[in-house]
Automatic annotation (TrEMBL):
<protein>
    <recommendedName>
        <fullName>DUF1440 domain-containing protein</fullName>
    </recommendedName>
</protein>
<keyword id="KW-1133">Transmembrane helix</keyword>
<feature type="transmembrane region" description="Helical">
    <location>
        <begin position="113"/>
        <end position="132"/>
    </location>
</feature>
<keyword id="KW-0812">Transmembrane</keyword>
<feature type="transmembrane region" description="Helical">
    <location>
        <begin position="82"/>
        <end position="101"/>
    </location>
</feature>
<feature type="transmembrane region" description="Helical">
    <location>
        <begin position="16"/>
        <end position="37"/>
    </location>
</feature>
<keyword id="KW-0472">Membrane</keyword>
Length: 171
């Protein structure tokens, strides 16, 4: 049984590459999860959500940072490009963080990464996004969009964990 602290020669020699790959794959999976789970959020909850924020932290972060950096508003095509770039950087960064934490704390790798996913959601949506003014505190966001975001973090963590487990099996 995999405990989370077993590593293949590949993962031992290239833990950074494994973490980065895990983050990129997980980002793609979370994108698909976002589209799927968004269908489950009612129109009423979406309207309530738009009253407290212009979009999820993931949707507004890239364009907001790029707009501040460039000192101007972005057109829709630029926003799409920046969102893609932000998603890649986010995936790479969190992939590295996840890889390091799961190695140090093997319990985070259990149950498909669920012990990482829940704190990951609260760190991102409950602390980091409000601190950077990308999103209001969780108690102001309607419950369905919050549950959807937690589902996205669970999907992200499960996909990242899958990549690590796949790398551990490569001999």
């Amino acid at each position: 049984m995999f405990t989370g602290n077993q590593a293949s020669p590949l993962e031992r020699r290239h833990p950074i590459l494994t973490g980065m790959a895990a983050g990129l794959v997980a980002g793609a999976v979370a994108g698909a999860s976002e589209r799927l789970l968004d269908r489950l959020v009612s129109k009423k909850q979406k309207r309530r959500d738009r009253k407290v924020r212009e979009g999820s932290a993931h949707q507004v972060a890239g364009p907001r940072f790029a707009s501040k950096l460039l000192g101007r508003r972005l057109d829709p095509q630029e926003k799409r490009r920046v969102n893609l770039a932000f998603g890649v950087v986010y995936g790479l960064g969190w992939g590295l963080i996840h890889g390091g934490l799961r190695k140090r704390f093997p319990v985070l790798a259990r149950w498909g990464g669920l012990p990482f996913a829940i704190p990951f959601f609260f760190a991102c949506d409950g602390v980091i996004a409000p601190a950077l003014r990308l999103s209001p505190r969780l108690d102001r966001v309607p419950w369905q969009p919050s549950v959807k975001e937690m589902g996205n973090h669970i999907a992200w963590s499960a996909a990242a964990e899958w990549v690590h487990r796949l790398a551990a099996r490569m001999r």
